[in-house]
From TrEMBL:
Segments crossing the lipid bilayer: 21-38, 44-61, 73-90
Species assigned in the record: Actinocorallia longicatena
Domain of life according to the entry: Bacteria
Keywords attached to this entry: Membrane, Transmembrane, Transmembrane helix
Pfam families for the chain: DUF6703 (PF20444)
Keyword field contains Transmembrane: yes
Designated name of the protein: Uncharacterized protein
Amino acid sequence: MSLRDAVERNSATPVVFLHQLPRWVLPLTVAALMLVGLVVRGPWGTVCLTVLALFLGWFFYLSWPRLDLTERLLRVAALALLVAFAAGDLI
């Protein structure tokens, strides 16, 4: 079994859980983490941006095989920018 298969298999339950939530919960949570991460300086801002980066990285990994080159580049750029903001908050 490959790593991708293992990640997809272990991600099935959390993805189903997220799908069952009301539609507004996920975008509101992502926006709140982003807002707190960019406004609050120090460890709390870094934690929020890091959690958001991990969550988006997981989602990006799951959707990677079906994306074309442009979509892949945009997602890598978005994730890199988010990680740069999180790292910049540590300094």
